[in-house]
Write a structure and sequence with these properties.
about 10% strand; two-stranded antiparallel ribbon; 5 strands; binds zinc ion; about 55% helix; mainly alpha; Ubiquitin-like (UB roll)
Length: about 325
Amino acid sequence: MSERFLAFCEQCRKQVSVSLVETLEEYDFNGMTYAYPVKRGVCPECGGVATPNSVLDENQRSFTDAVRAVNGIVGQSVVESVPEQYSIGKRPLSRLLGWGEHTYSRFLDGDVPSVDYSKTIERIARSPLAFLLRLYGGRGELSGVAFRKSRDATLQVLRDCGAKIERAAAYIIARTGSASPLALQKELYYADGLCLSYDGAPLFPDRCEAWVYGPVFPRLWEDVELKGIGEESLFGGEVSDALVGTFSGKELEVLDAVIVHVARFSPYVLRDLTHKERPWVDARAGVGDGVPSHNEITIESMAQFFKGLWEDYHMERPGDIDRYMRASVLGE
Ligand SMILES: [Zn+2]
């Protein structure tokens, strides 16, 4: 369905109700070609071009965003979306990101962020989990009221449109009180695999790769960048409470089993364990020790491995993963 707009037609010398037609324009500048969508109004009486002023502004922004994108600069609409979707003022947001108090305001006013600033803005715009971790880590920068308002808005975004892997990660962080990226990646791996064998489908659709330190879901690594998360960023029960209803009964059983029986072991124990398991070993066939690889750990290899665990350890429920963990880690 196309919206209709009023515009002044120069040929007909009057206001007409136009329909909009979208085309892709190309603009060559300094050896670069910028492609960007533009909209034009078409006069229903003479067929001439009559584009409403608001649409002309939009076209200008579309061009600017295309130039910014080619140069690794975040689009202006993304800059504007962040304070809005996470219900946070531009000054507290700026402080939360560790920037000068007025930096974010300047970007909103049209100053062009550097590539580094752009990466941060894009990351938090795309990932409610990344923003939530920043919010908890910097809660001292906000009043209690402002913190809770932004926290509730962010949890709403995470619940309604966050990727499932982010919801699962936030739930695990809140329940384990740990945000060790190494451990979290392994916990998500076991949760994904257990869901596959217990529920017939993986917990989330994200690609898993066989990295040097075990199975890794790169999406979580790139978007959330857990590397710098300290104890002060950790979530409380309000986060797990907000997310619990977004999982099915079987998924919760799996997540709780992982939290109790897998997360009790140190990140390095979990790394060593996955290094003995077929999915990681097979995906790294021909790759030397310590050599980076982006080889995929396929759903099929995970399904086969976890099905085997289920049979070998006479598992009836996800919590029976305890038998495997005890036998392979503690030698019981
Ligand atoms: Zn006309």
